[in-house]
């Protein structure tokens, strides 16, 4: 049987909530699952999730393939790294040492991400302050009314043909255009 580890949606409309399940790949997304392996809440600010690591490793050992969304969750939980180490044939003590290293590096990565996000937010706030200087509202109304007046002055010019061109000239141009197009054919 082709088994998949994937997410099964159980949330209401506009509020998704997912269960991670082991399921036959031929079943539909919300069909009957073989086993529930955890849950994932994308609405939560921290995108919280809880996974049963032992059962997921069991199903990976049985040949179950995780979907792309499930792979991301497994990567965030460290299960993918543990599975990689197990496939290399490392002993349990070596795997535990490597997982501790991974957890420390993961904390550093998350801290760096939060610092860069804070830095970007500060820069954006500074840009907004520089772009929108605080002006007197009366001055801005005067400037906008002057701009509107300039636009109306430009539009007041009539769109009449110049005195040099007459209706006869336009008729001659149309006749000449027809003659030249028939010659081209």
Describe the structure.
The protein has 185 residues and is of the alpha+beta class. Among the domains are: 3-89, S16 Ribosomal Protein, Chain: A; 91-129. The protein contains six helices and five strands; from the N terminus they run ββββαβααααα. It has helices at residues 53-61, 68-77, 79-88, 92-131, 137-155, 167-184, and strands at 3-9, 18-24, 35-40, 49-51, 65-66. The chain has a five-stranded mixed sheet. A hairpin with an 8-residue loop joins strand 1 and strand 2. Helix 3 packs antiparallel against helix 4 (92-131). The mean pLDDT is 79.
Structure described in brief:
With 185 residues, the chain is an alpha+beta fold. The protein is built from 6 helices and 5 strands.
Order of helices and strands: EEEEHEHHHHH
Poorly predicted parts: none
What is the rounded distance between the termini?
71 Å
What structural class do you assign from the helix and strand content?
Answer: alpha+beta
How would you state the average pLDDT, rounded?
Answer: 79
CATH class of one domain: Alpha Beta
CATH homologous superfamily name of one domain? Ribosomal protein S16
Shape: elongated
Q: Percentage of helical residues? A: 55-70%
Side-by-side strand order of the widest sheet: 4-3-2-1-5
CATH architecture of one domain: 2-Layer Sandwich
Alpha carbon gyration radius: 35 Å
**Counting H and I runs of at least 4 residues, what is the number of helices?**
6
In the CATH hierarchy, the third-tier topology of one domain is known as: S16 Ribosomal Protein, Chain: A
The tally of beta strands, per DSSP, is: 5
Largest sheet: 5 strands, mixed
Strand content: 5-15%
